[in-house]
Design a protein that fits this description.
By secondary structure, the protein is of the alpha+beta class. The protein has 4 helices and 6 strands.
Length: 127
C-alpha cells in the first residue's frame, strides 16, 4: 500500500511468483513501491519483515562495504537475493527512507491489509 499523506492518494498493488521465497517477494514489494515514485521523496517504509527492516537498517551497509559478501561461521558467503538488494540500494540513493518494523498480525491496519493482498495474490498458485 502506498499512501501520500498530504493528498490522501492511496495505491494498492500485489503480486506473486512461482518458485520463489517470501523474502524475495518482500524485497520485490519494496522495490515496486519505490519504483512508482516519480521524483525523490521522503518515505516511511513500514514492514513486518525483519529480513527487510534489518536488511535495510543494519546489513545492507555492511554488505556493500564488504563487496556484497557476508560473514557466516568465520567464512565469507554470498549475499542471498543480491540482485534485489542491489536494485533496492539504487532506489535508496534516490529517496530518503525511514524504516519502521511492526509485528505481523498485531492489528496494524495497513499491515493487515498487505497480508490480505499477499494471500490473495498467491492463492492462484495453490490450485
Amino acid at each position: 500500500i502506498l499512501r501520500h499523506p498530504s493528498s490522501g492518494k492511496e495505491l494498492e498493488h500485489s503480486g506473486a511468483e512461482r518458485q520463489t521465497t517470501n523474502n524475495r517477494m518482500e524485497l520485490t514489494a519494496v522495490i515496486r513501491g519505490l519504483e512508482t515514485l516519480k521524483r525523490p521523496a521522503t518515505v516511511e517504509l513500514v514492514s513486518d519483515s525483519e529480513y527487510v527492516t534489518r536488511g535495510l537498517s543494519e546489513w545492507l551497509p555492511k554488505w556493500k562495504a564488504n563487496g556484497w559478501r557476508r560473514r557466516e561461521g568465520g567464512h565469507w558467503k554470498e549475499v542471498k537475493n543480491e540482485d534485489l538488494w542491489r536494485a533496492l540500494d539504487q532506489l535508496l540513493a534516490k529517496h530518503r527512507v525511514r524504516v519502521t518494523h511492526v509485528r505481523g498480525h498485531a492489528g496494524h491496519p495497513e499491515n493487515e491489509r498487505c497480508d490480505e493482498l499477499a494471500v490473495a495474490a498467491y492463492q492462484k498458485y495453490l490450485k
